[in-house]
Amino acid sequence: MIEPIKPEPTNEAIYSKWAILGFCIFFSPIFGGVLIRQNLIGVHRKREANLLLLLSVLMAFLTAMLASTPYGGSGTTILANFLQGALLVEFSFKKYLPHADELPKKTIWRPLSISLMIVAALLMLMILLGVPLQEVKP
User: Fold this and answer.
1) Mean pLDDT in the chain?
2) Phi, psi (degrees; rounded to nearest 5) at 105
3) At what angle do helices 29-42 and 17-26 cross, to 10 degrees?
4) Is residue 40 a contact partner of residue 92, using CB atoms and an 8 Å limit?
5) Which of 28, 42, 67, 120 has a CA between 20 and 30 Å from the CA of residue 101?
C-alpha cells in the first residue's frame, strides 16, 4: 500500500515578535502587519496573512481617527500603536505560529530600509505640497 507523501514542516525564517512590535510602535501597525503577513505566507497561511494585514490597516485608520480628536498627540499615537502591535503580535503568534521559537529569525535591515525610504518619501511629498509638519495653534 502506498502512503501519501506528507509535506515537510517548513523551517522558513520569520520576523521575531520584538521586530514586528517595534515596527508597529515606531512606524505604524501597517508596517507590522506587512511583516506578520510575510511570516504567515512563509508557513503557507495566505488567507490568514491577508486578513491580518487588513486588520492592521483598520488599526492604523483607528489610530489616525484618534489622533484627530482632542485626545490625540504623539504620546497617544505611540500608546495606540503599542497596544495594537501587541494585539497583532500576540494573536498571530499564539494562533498561527505557536512553534515560532524554534524557527530561524530574519534580520530587520531590509524592511527597516524600505520603511525609512517610505517615510522619507512621504515627508518630502508633504513638504512639496505645503502640508504643515507641526500643529498650528490659533
Assistant:
1) 88
2) -105, 145
3) 150
4) yes
5) 28
3-class secondary structure, 105:
strand
Confidence band of 8 (pLDDT split at 50, 70, 90):
very low
**Domain of residue 46, residue span:** 17-105
Q: How far apart are CA 44 and CA 10, in angstroms?
A: 9
Q: Within 13 Å of residue 73, how many CA atoms lie on the same side as its CB?
A: 4
Domain-located, residue 122: no
pTM: 0.83
Is 66 part of a structural domain of the chain? yes
Name the least confident of 23-32, 53-62, 74-83, 110-119: 74-83
Q: How far apart are CA 138 and CA 135, in angstroms?
A: 10
- Cell numbers given for 27: 512606524
Q: How many domains does the chain have?
A: 1
